[in-house]
Amino acid sequence: MPTRSTKHIGASPYSTSHFQDSPRFGNQYLEDSFLQQSLRRLVTDETTFAKYEPQLEQLGDRVVYEMWPLSKQLNVPENQPRLMQYDAWGKRIDDIATHAAWKHMHVAAATEGVVADGYNVKEFGRDARLFQFTKLLLYAPSSGLYSCPLAMTDGAVRYLKLALGEDVSPVEESAVKANFQDMFKKDPSLEAEARRVLAHLLSKDANEFYTSGQWMTERGGGSDVAQGTETIARKQPDGSYALYGYKWFTSATEADVSLTLARIESEDGTVEEGSSGLSCFLVNVRNSGTKELNNIRVHRLKNKLGTKQLPTAEMELCGTKARLVSQPGRGVASITTGMVNVTRIHNSVGACANIRRITCLARDYSHRRRVFGSPLSENRLHLKTLAQLELNYRACLAFTLDTVSIMGRVETARNKTDILGGSGVAGSILSAESASLLVRILTPVLKAFTAKVSIASVSEGLEMFGGQGYIEDTGLPTFYRDAQVLSIWEGTTNVLSHDTLRVLAKSRFEAYTVFEKLVRERCTMPTTNPVIKAAMDSVLAALDTITSFLKANFAKAHTVEAVARDLLMALGRIGSGSCLIEHAVWSGNVVDAASAKRWCCDTPLVAFLESDRDVKVDLDRALALDLDPISGSPRFHGNVDARGKERAKL
Fold first, then answer.
1. Can you list the positions of beta strands (E) in 294-359?
2. What is the pLDDT of residue 298?
3. Of 231, 258, 261, 255, whose CA–CA distance to 311 is shortest?
4. Mean pLDDT, residues 333-360
5. Residue 421 has pLDDT above 70, yes or no
6. How many CB atoms lie within 10 A of CB 650?
7. C-alpha dihedral over 442, 443, 448, 451, to 10 degrees?
8. CA gyration radius, the chain
9. 3-class DSSP state for residue 240?
């Protein structure tokens, strides 16, 4: 038996025993080979990319050596946002105090152009969005959640650009006309205000850079803004509006401006209910002269599961001055056109970034941690788990960057029939018009799919650190708590599943047809590699299953709604699998080919069966509501149980 000397150990042996080395990570661009390859596959202009890549290398260092230490400070409870409602003399101020590290994230976002670069088409052409979201991928996991206000800021930029008639793609013209009808050109003061705000939102000067909020959620509903919005807007003599209402969730509450929904009050004191009664307004959070809040009361900060670095508040609008920035009654339609796709992609990039960071740390830790006499990096079971995390990242990133690239090309299209060029099959078959439909169906699928994969991946990643993954001092649990918001913000999985069905119905299946055609093109690319061919066959078989099911059942609302979530996840696995296939054909790399096969063949791409779906609908109700099999009524619900005893509140 091996022995070791203990003569050197004193009275306190723990003081000289083994100490585990913590994981390390370096430049987040240079250490991500798949990201680099993906960009080279997707860029439309290699000369522009050669000029832009040094910025990615620079940011790759900045997020590690400058931002990461600061983001850890934001996880300390004493450094998280605090609401100071009154000053020392009793005056209501509702000031939200944030840490210096949070303010530094603002500086980094501005100077790196994490928002602005997405609109610098003059310099970056059709790749502007691709470059911007690559920067966000690097920035987000070291930003202490400052990526959240950036998502809303980007959405506000896109909204205001469309409202002003700037950079409007031909495929967006009809929606823009319906939502805005040149209202900004007809009102010089409104146009001037919108341009002033837009210039700040796009500034790369940290002192001039604005962030924007989105104040949509009220007590009556989250995603159901049509029924849940109670805020009213009263027109003022100067043409502005005074808003009165209570906003239940306002993320990035300290933003400079915000877009919000309200119902315009008519002269007889009534408002129109439903979606058609909602209009969109632009709010300056503080008055320009005094810098005091614009008739806003912040009632409390939310005590959240995660994202504690980010101030989220309940606030009351008490006559808040605002400008109408949509046609009356076109509020929901205008935000759907102008910002929803953008913010959902931000969510997806954040999901990819979370997987990347936890995988990066777990990989390094596998070399440092020794178990049963050898490092974890030599344990086959550990390697298989770690490989799955990397594969999850690659699938989500490939799917996300492909969607980003298509969206960017739609935004810069010259006409509806403009063929979107670029590497791979994707660019060869998509007109701007068909690509626009594709983006509309991809964004809800992408957002929901990447969120779910990210949450599961981060949970698995924590487990790879053993007990240390559960210890707050390591900072690792923060990744898991923060990841939970990904499947909630910008629509839960079920909400996005319904949205996917709406896209299919509204486009009369044309959106799905474009998606199907794109996937089939990718899966019929010339290849002699049997590994890639197996992946292609698996995706095509899954696609046939989906297509057949939709053709046979889409008219059966009861059946399709019950499988909407399964359908969304299947589209996510098929879409991401086709992206991995295209990447493998492009690279010719044996690892890329094997990765595509594992993703497409080892786990079923379609997780529902058509044959017993009607039976399962009834079973869903019985299990979900705990129905009595005889009466068909829920066994327990309401305020009082069967004994007449009051049931407890949460």
1. 296-301, 312-324
2. 97
3. 255
4. 94
5. no
6. 2
7. 110
8. 26
9. coil
Predicted model pTM: 0.93
Whether the per-residue pLDDT at 427 is higher than 50: the answer is no
In angstroms, rounded to a whole number, what is the distance separating the alpha carbons of residues 432 and 183? 26
Specify whether the CB–CB gap between 405 and 130 falls below 8 A. yes
Domain assignment of residue 101, yes or no: yes
Q: What is the mean pLDDT of the chain?
A: 91
**Residue 426: pLDDT band with limits 50, 70, 90:** very low
Question: Does the pLDDT value for residue 617 go beyond 60?
Answer: no
Question: What CA–CA distance (Å, rounded) separates 32 from 34?
Answer: 6
Which CATH number belongs to the domain containing residue 104 in this structure?
2.40.110.20
* Tokens standing for residue 523: 């899966």
Whats the size of the chain, residue-wise? 650
Here the tokens at position 459 are 């949970």
Find residue 646's DSSP bridge partners.
640
Cα(41)–Cα(114) distance, integer angstroms: 22
Is residue 202 within 8 A of residue 154, CB to CB? The reply is no
Q: Check if the beta carbon of residue 399 is closer than 8 Å to that of residue 449.
A: yes
Q: Is 646 exposed, middle or buried (0-12, 13-18, 19+ CB in 10 A)?
A: exposed
If you search the block for the tokens 């995603």, which residue do you land on? 223
Number of domains, the chain: 1
Band of pLDDT at residue 414, cut at 50, 70 and 90: confident
Provide the CA 624 distance to its chain's centre, in angstroms: 29
Rounded distance between C-alpha atoms, residue 48 and residue 270, angstroms: 55
Domain that holds residue 121: 33-334
Q: How far is it, in rounded angstroms, from Cα 521 to Cα 565?
A: 25
pLDDT score of 91 more than 80: yes
Beta carbons of 399 and 575 less than 8 angstroms apart: yes
Strands (E), 469-610: none
Q: Does residue 113 carry a pLDDT above 50? A: yes
DSSP per position, 369-415: -EETTEEGGG-HHHHHHHHHHHHHHHHHHHHHHHHHHHHHHHHT-SS
Q: Is residue 54 domain-resident?
A: yes
- Cα 607 to chain center, whole Å? 24
Residues whose CB is less than 8 angstroms from the CB of residue 448 and which lie 6 or more positions away in sequence, other chains included: 487, 491, 493, 496, 497, 568, 569, 572
User: Residue 248 contacts by C-beta under 8 Å, 6 or more apart in sequence?
Assistant: 217, 218, 219, 314
240: in domain:
yes
For Cα atoms 420, 425, 427, give the angle at the middle one, nearest 5 degrees.
5
**Quick check: is 236 in a domain?**
yes
Which amino acid, 570?
A: A
What confidence tens digit (pLDDT) does each residue in 138-150 have?
999 999 999 999 9
Residue pair 527/596 in contact by the 8 Å Cβ criterion = no
Contacts of 590 by beta carbon, 8 Å cutoff, 6+ apart: 531
- In this structure, the dihedral spanned by the alpha carbons of residues 199, 205, 207 and 208, taken in order and rounded to 10 degrees, is 0
Instruction: Using alpha carbons, select from 436, 426, 420, 433 the residue that is nearest to residue 341.
Output: 436
Partners of residue 374 on adjacent β-strands: 371
Closest CA to 364 of 18, 13, 31, 15: 31
Give the span between the Cα atoms of 119 and 250, in whole angstroms: 26
- DSSP-H helix ranges across 113-146: 121-124, 128-139
pLDDT tens by residue, 522-570: 999 999 999 999 999 999 999 999 999 999 888 877 778 888 999 999 9
